[in-house]
Each structure stands twice: as C-alpha cells, then as structure tokens.
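for the record, two folds in this file. i put them one after another cuz i was lazy. first one right below, seq on top, structure tokens after. the second one comes after a little note so u can tell where it starts
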Amino acid sequence: QGQEKLSCNPKKENGTHVVLCELGNPMKAGARITVDLELSVSGLEDMGDAITFHLQLRSKNSPSPSNASVTVTVPVEAEAEMELRGTSLPATTVLPTSWQGVEGSRRLEDHGIKVEHVYELHNKGPGTVSGVTLNLAVPHLLGDHVLLYLLELGTEGGMDCSHHPALNPAQV
C-alpha cells in the first residue's frame, strides 16, 4: 500500500559481508511485498568485471520451505576521465632560415635551439586507473632533414617509458 524506508544493518557472517534489512511485523498471511534495494559498493577496483549478490528472504516464523533465494550478478564498469596537458618551453621559437648545424659537434648549441616539451597525464576520476598507455608521436624528420633532434626522454611518478631508437643518435 504505502512506502516505508527499511532499516538495514551491515555485518559479517563466515567471512562474507551481509546486509540485514528488517521488513517489519506482523504481516498477514498471503501478504505480497515489493522491495527495491539500492546498494552503494566501494572498493571494486580489484573485483574483476562483475559482482554477485545473493539475496534471500527469511521469515522468523516457524521454518518455512518458501525461504526463497536468488543470485544477481551485476557487471562492474570502471569510469575515469583522463586529461593530457602539454607545454613547450619556450612557448614560441623562431628558427633562422640560414642556420646550419655543426657536424660532428657534441655541444648542444651547435645542434639548434633547445625546446623542452612537458606533458602531464591527469586522472580526473571518479575511479582509479592502472595500465594506461600513452603513445606520443614526435615528428623529428622533415623529408631528409632533421626537424627536431630528440635529445632525451624522462618521466616522473613511477611510470615506465620506452622510446624510439632515434633518441640522441649523435650522442650529444
């Protein structure tokens, strides 16, 4: 007939998390009750791709063979939004048209103007992420001419990094 909020209490039984909800008494014989449950579960990062709930309706009255149970499996979908930010230092560089590199030199200034590119990958949530791969393609050649001389590649924050073999080929 009407709607009532249930009083539910979490507890542990035999290593299993149990939530016990009291529907109330007394109920008339043959009464039909519909119950909608909304569950909020945290810490699902390592649960795999689904979580299973075992639901059972029990009566405190004399033992009844109609203590029905049902198993519900709900898919787990992690959601996290990633954001990539990047800057160049200096922000603008003008290359002279007649500039020529000094072949065989190991001095940085003989190979061009230093430009540093910094990229930051941020997790905006709400979930945590792992196993993220960022592929960054940097055009280092323009035809047969060196456009950008890739000197070094570094990371911070416990990331692994692999790079193209064209990194610092002249060992400057």
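(here's the note) second protein begins now
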Amino acid sequence: MPEAEKRTAKGKFVVATFNQCASYLNPMFKICGKKILPGDGRQALVKVVQCCMKRDYLAAMDEYIRLAIGNAPWPIGVTMVGIHEREKIYTNSVAHIMNDETTRKYLQSVKRLMTFSQRRYPTGPSKSVVFNSLANGSDLQSLLAEERAANNVLSKERRRLV
C-alpha cells in the first residue's frame, strides 16, 4: 500500500486490521508448530485452506462454520428442561472449538483471510460467499478486472504470434 494511502482513515483502519490479524494468528502457528492442535480442528483448517486455493469459497465457509460452531445439539424450543436433562444433552459433544479467547481470535483471523482471499482471487458467483456485497469492495468489480487483465494478456499473445 502506498504511504499516502496508509495515512488516510481507511488506510489506517486496513493497516490496523492487518496487524491485529497477524498478531491473532501467532498463537495458532505456535500450536501448529508444537503439534498440539486437535486433529479435527487441524483437518477443518486444512480443508478451509484447500477450498480457498481452489477458489471454492462457499465450501470453505461451510468448513469454517462447521469448525467454529460444531455439531452439539442446541435445545432451542425445549421448555422446562431440568439440570439432569441438560447434562445429558451436552455430555457427549463439544459445542464449538471457540472455548477460549485465543481460539476465538485466531478463528476470526482465519475468516478475515478467507474474505481477503475471495476479494484478491475472485471466482464465479456460484462459489462465492455473498457475491458483490460491496462491504469491503466489490467482488463483481474484482472479477471483471481479473477478466480484463486475462483478456489483455491473451490479446498481447495473439499480437506477438501474428
């Protein structure tokens, strides 16, 4: 990012978010380095990265949600549940991986990286999450810019061959 852009309000926010994301990911890298990351969490993170590399951001989001929320039953709509029934509901399943603040922070950073990846390397609407959301820039504009760049490269190749 150019220095002049870093000094704007938007640039300062982007730089601060980047630095926060980097600091939140450090504990995850340490856990991975020590090889103490739980197997299911490791597999889910690997699937998220693989899906992002294939530019299938919808599948990456599904894996992320599965990782973050988990599969514990939520007794919604159940009334008059006693203490013993609640214990039975939660004994054999972990509600989610975000049990502590550190895990929540690095998973938030993983989500930010997924969003950045989708903006930097756009794909078609069928594999995107909230296509053309305009929240942090337009996915449609990114996709069109990438297509224009590819067309320019092809036309230069054609001219060179002729």
